[in-house]
Amino acid sequence: QKEVEQNSGPLSVPEGAIASLNCTYSDRVSQSFFWYRQYSGKSPELIMSIYSNGDKEDGRFTAQLNKASQYVSLLIRDSQPSDSATYLCAVWMAGTASKLTFGTGTRLQVTL
Amino acid sequence: EAQVTQNPRYLITVTGKKLTVTCSQNMNHEYMSWYRQDPGLGLRQIYYSMNVEVTDKGDVPEGYKVSRKEKRNFPLILESPSPNQTSLYFCASRGTAVGEQYFGPGTRLTVT
Fold first, then answer.
1. C-alpha distances in angstroms, B53 versus A37, B22, B101?
2. Residue-level pLDDT, tens digit, chain B, 112 residues
3. Which of B27, B71, B89, B102 is least enclosed, having the fewest CB within 10 Å?
């Protein structure tokens, strides 16, 4: 079983809609969770972090964490074509040093 | 400008010919990592370093070497490259925030 799992997509949503990206993880002691965005041919960049259960909002982005279900999600409201990218879920595992475990990413396509 | 730089950006080489990919950061970060990114496998950590002269293996260290003689530099060395090391490589650094990694632009390596 992969430690961090994401649906590879592509997830296609129309402009202005809400995009919902999901991620599950296997290690119950995981403590910190992150979403990175990676445009085609570019390097990943951090867009959201979440550490406790519930929702965290930043502009059009909302991260949701449910540790009991080992589930983290990213909602993008009012999706724009510029949001088209691959979104990587990353989990910091307790007890490890300097290691983020990444999912394989979900490719999002925002259509006009 | 805060950044992580890598060189070269693109490299085509032949099996067995030693190569070095350089990585440098100007943020005075203690932590640096190397990742490779492959389709369907995502980002996987090769090696990481918590400080000068302190390095450790990540998930896929076979066939790679690293060194950390200076805080800003973290070169990746392939002593005898093989075709299965054809990949996109990213160097990353971070400060005290565990998940906030800054990635370099990537090096696309092809070994024939």
1. 31, 16, 20
2. 889 999 999 999 999 999 999 999 999 999 999 999 999 898 999 999 999 999 999 999 999 999 999 999 999 999 999 999 999 999 999 988 888 899 999 999 999 9
3. B27
Q: What is the pLDDT of residue A96?
A: 58
Question: If you count residue pairs, one on A and one on B, with CB atoms under 8 Å apart, how many are there?
Answer: 53
Give the residue from A30, A32, A37, A100 with the most B CB atoms within 10 Å of its CB, the best one to mutate: A100
Q: How far A111 CA lies from chain B's nearest CA (Å)?
A: 24
Residue of A nearest to B46 (CA): A99
Q: Are A27 and A38 in contact (CB under 8 A)?
A: no
B102: left (phi over 0), alpha (psi -120 to 50) or beta: beta
Q: How far is CA B23 from CA A73, A101, A105, B33, B106, in A?
A: 32, 21, 25, 10, 10
Name the DSSP class of A92: E
